[in-house]
Amino acid sequence: MYKILIRPVLTYSSGKWPLSKTNERRLSLFERKMLRCIFGAKQENETWLKRHNYKLHEAFNEPSIVKYIKVNRLAWAGHLMRMNNDRIL
């Protein structure tokens, strides 16, 4: 659900964003909150354990949202390099 619905809306037009450290931190925080809501806690020996960040990313098994945005930026730069010089953006 996160990968199909939430992430595309969150990263729409992200290839053109200036990405600061503050924005990277906020995006990572949002991603962790969403993954924690989706995957939830884990029960071991009749106790509920909160999943740590590395366990969430292991369960999600996808690149982080910051890496995803950086790949989008590189793809956008590639499109710009291949565009004709007489074309208007």
Binned, the helix content reads 55-70%
Radius of gyration: 17 Å
Q: How would you describe the shape?
A: elongated
DSSP strand count: 2
With strands numbered from the N-terminus, the spatial order across the biggest sheet is 1-2
| First-last Cα distance | 33 Å
Q: pLDDT under 50 segments (min length 5)?
A: none
- What fraction of residues sit in β-strands? 5-15%
Largest sheet: 2 strands, antiparallel
Q: Output mean pLDDT.
A: 84
Helix-strand category: mainly alpha
Give helix and strand order, one letter per element, not per position.
HHEEHH
Total of DSSP H or I helical runs spanning 4+ residues: 4
Structure description:
With 89 residues, the protein is mainly α. It has a domain at 22-82. 61% of the residues lie in helices and 7% in strands. The protein is built from 4 helices and 2 strands; from the N terminus they run H-H-E-E-H-H. It has helices at 2-10, 21-39, 53-60, 65-82, and strands spanning 42-44, 47-49. The protein has a two-stranded antiparallel ribbon with strand order 1-2. Strand 1 (42-44) and strand 2 (47-49) form a beta hairpin. Helix 2 (21-39) crosses helix 3 (53-60). The longest helix is centred in the middle third of the chain and has 19 residues, at 21-39. The mean pLDDT is 84.
